[in-house]
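Recall that a protein's primary structure is simply its ordered list of amino acids. Everything else, from secondary elements to tertiary packing, is in principle encoded there. The following example makes that idea concrete.
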Amino acid sequence: MSRFVRKGHQAEANAFVPLPVRDGVAPSYLWITESRPGGMLAFLEERFAGVAGPPWRERLARGDVVDATGEPLRADSHVRQGMRIWYYRELEEETPIPFEETILFQDEHLLVVDKPHFLPMIPTGRFLRETLLVRLKRKLALPHLTPIHRLDRETAGVVIFSHNLATRGTYQSMFQKRVIRKTYEALAPALEGREFPFTYRSRMVDGEKFFVMKNEPGEPNSETVVELIERRGDLARYRLHPHTGRKHQLRLHMASLGVPILNDTFYPVALPCKGDDFSAPLQLLARSIAFEDPLTGEARSFASRRELDWP
């Protein structure tokens, strides 16, 4: 039986959070669903075995692990069913990502950002402070900041954040209702034998490897409109309009058409991880986002200032 249920790095919007945002990093929390002997230190060392970061004995001594009331936990604190413990995720070493984000717009509700390639949206895996969310929280002192949609780490361009708890749901609903108009650009091999624009549809499901998607026969659940902007020799620049928002949709669709996006290391074949090699960014850009503001009815449109790199 599982002894715990781990949640993410951001607490629920209306929940009491006993630890503050620290240097842009929000606390994580863990539900414990089964009592166990041995004390808190033994539990944490077993639960996070092999995870990099300062020793748990040191974190407990600093008071950086607390219960739901904010009471610091000790090495010998009991581990009880129903507890929720809070802590900071920490990395001892993290490679700096040498590209900067650009703020395009900010008001009392939204923050619109032009994200560079290679920068993850949120803390995950080997990335913590070198993520767009933590960078922005640290720079702008916006503790309630959260993205209301996502871009892949490899993709650059326009992304929208909410920093107002009262209106977050209203703006999130735009994406759920698919009233957002998103436009992407991509560099890929020239596609022969097609008249542009055209619509590509497929049924996308999880692939055999957890980090990729694949197509399978059946009712389509993804749709992309493909336009040709320009052609230079064997390469072309495309404008892509995703009418659905599946994970890796544009990357899989272009690869399925036989023209994978330039420098894509996942499609059509997942290549070995390049680690901290920043020399060949994926040539996919979230060019623009447009919508009618649900609070004011005003037409809003935001465009990336970045450009794709022709070889």
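The two ends are 53 Å apart (CA to CA). The helical segments are 40-47, 56-62, 132-140, 168-176, 249-256.
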